[in-house]
């Protein structure tokens, strides 16, 4: 089993934690992680964009001038795409962009993402994140001591002080263990987990 050092908020090592290899030590599958990321980004798209084709815009019922003899190019309607106010060629229409993944694929993608952070030595475990108040400067110093200025911070349950403290740090995002996503894990340089969050993740994916 892989083991990682556990730090306190002062950045001092307090103990060693054994990680479950079934979650944090699987063979990394880049293809399935890519599929999960593409799926999440696609599922976030609303798909509500819409424009009118030449058959849907109003007007243009009569030919603007006669076919020959005017010196102009021949035109059949003032609502053709080349006219101002005309229809759009291949106009976008509302559609569903969602991508489906089965349960086993989602689990493998998550395990691969977590294992990649362990393999790259970019997983930081803290014993707890008990902040007395919501203060950005204090939280930024904690992350600096943990050598994780650009990080995804994961707690077991929502911690309002941690969330509010991190809101104004553009390189940091907070989430809870049951809302973890492959995209967020791979997006941020470091993954910071509390001990409780590690246990919660292992309980779900082991």
TrEMBL record:
SUPFAM superfamilies: Ribosomal protein L4
Biased composition (Polar residues): 43-52
Keyword RNA-binding annotated: yes
Cellular component annotations (GO), alphabetically ordered: ribonucleoprotein complex; ribosome
GO molecular function, one term: structural constituent of ribosome
One record GO biological process: translation
Keywords, ordered alphabetically: Ribonucleoprotein, Ribosomal protein, RNA-binding, rRNA-binding
Region of interest (Disordered), ranges: 43-87
InterPro entries in UniProt: Ribosomal_uL4, Ribosomal_uL4-like, Ribosomal_uL4_dom_sf
Family: Belongs to the universal ribosomal protein uL4 family.
HAMAP family linked: Ribosomal_uL4_B (MF_01328_B)
Physiological role: One of the primary rRNA binding proteins, this protein initially binds near the 5'-end of the 23S rRNA. It is important during the early stages of 50S assembly. It makes multiple contacts with different domains of the 23S rRNA in the assembled 50S subunit and ribosome. Forms part of the polypeptide exit tunnel.
Complex formation: Part of the 50S ribosomal subunit.
Protein name: Large ribosomal subunit protein uL4
Top-level taxonomy: Bacteria, Bacillati, Bacillota, Clostridia, Lachnospirales
